[in-house]
Amino acid sequence: MVLVVEDEPEISLVCSKILTSKSLKVDIAHDGEMAEEMLKRKDYDLCLIDLGTLMKSDKQLCQYMNEKYPKLLKGAVFTAGGVLTGDSKHFMGQTTRLFLHKPFAPEWLKEIVIKALKQV
């Protein structure tokens, strides 16, 4: 089960289609608050988190995940569409994290998700 945290509906829909084509079940959260609620209700194997969504207003999601689901956070795949600066650059530099730059090819998403699932 994969939780996609993405505020752009078109991107979350594409991610969902790509991942379900690999026989993965996908839930979509449009912000960190929604993601927190979903994490409380279901067990996820992986999170795909947009850094743009995260750094706008949802920094608390990573703090929450670090406290309650550290293994899930450690294995999360992060995405971003621009150059990493400021908070997002600091966040990504804290530890080795899986990262996928937007726009990405469907094959890249499939590959990194398979890699991440093998690590967790």
Kindly describe this structure.
With 120 residues, the chain is an alpha/beta fold. It has a single domain (2-119), classed as 3-Layer(aba) Sandwich (Rossmann fold), CATH 3.40.50.2300. The protein is 55% helix and 18% strand. It has a five-stranded parallel sheet, sandwiched between helices. Helix 3 packs across helix 4 (59-68).
Overview in brief:
The protein is of the alpha/beta class and 120 residues long. The protein is 55% helix and 18% strand.
* Total of helices: 7
Rg on CA atoms, Å = 13 Å
Task: Specify the biggest β-sheet.
Answer: 5 strands, parallel
Distance between the termini: 12 Å
Q: Can you tell me the CATH superfamily?
A: Response regulator
SSE order, one letter for each helix or strand = EHEHEHHHEHEH
Q: How many β-strand stretches?
A: 5
List the helices and strands and how they pair.
Blueprint (H helix, E strand, L loop, with lengths): L1 E4 L3 H12 L5 E4 L2 H10 L4 E5 H7 L1 H10 L1 H5 L2 E4 L5 H8 L4 E4 L4 H14 L1
Parallel strand pairs: 1-2, 1-3, 3-4, 4-5
Helix pairs in contact: 2-4, 3-4
Keywords for this entry:
7 helices; alpha/beta; five-stranded parallel sheet; 5 strands; Rossmann fold; 120 residues
